[in-house]
């Protein structure tokens, strides 16, 4: 992979679903399908919307370690990023990624107490393509 930021960034931009994984209270991994990130900063920081009342938020508050996985089904390639999540409930964070139509999920709008932001900080990753795996470190 000549340019990880470009190769992986393109894969992420074409993916319409993200699989987010975290550890439950017994230490077992749990994976959840999520909508694509609302924003990304290169391949090191990702912003997602979610429900404050969700189990994943509860577990990520206790243990922020997790991963996000993006797949390109058409060419059978993907990228898994390992890192840590932050649960953000500030007005600034919520307004930053709010979109028209989000009231479908958060009835009270941007100030809905059941609306929060997950900010993921990637530290390392694995890129899968042509039946090969290439590991890399992410420098912020």
3D structure, described in words:
It comes from Candidatus Galacturonatibacter soehngenii. Residues 10-127 form the Pyridoxamine 5'-phosphate oxidase N-terminal domain. The chain has 140 residues and is α+β, with helices and mostly antiparallel strands. The protein has a single domain (4-137), classed as Electron Transport, Fmn-binding Protein, Chain A (Pnp Oxidase, Chain A, Roll), CATH 2.30.110.10. The protein has three helices and eight strands. Strands 1, 2, 3, 4, 5, 6, 7 and 8 form an eight-stranded antiparallel beta sheet that branches. The chain is globular and about 45 Å long. The mean pLDDT is 94.
Instruction: Give the amount of beta strand, in percent.
Output: over 45%
CATH topology-level fold name: Pnp Oxidase, Chain A
Helix tally equals 3
What is the CATH level 1 assignment?
Mainly Beta
Shape: globular
Q: CATH superfamily assignment?
A: Electron Transport, Fmn-binding Protein, Chain A
Classify the helix fraction into a percent range: 10-25%
Number of strands: 8
In short:
By secondary structure, the chain is α+β, with helices and mostly antiparallel strands. It has helices at residues 4-14, 55-62, 91-97, and strands spanning 17-23, 29-35, 39-41, 45-51, 65-72, 77-88, 115-129, 132-137.
Salient structural properties:
Split_barrel_FMN-bd, 8 strands, 3 helices, globular, eight-stranded antiparallel β-sheet, 140 residues
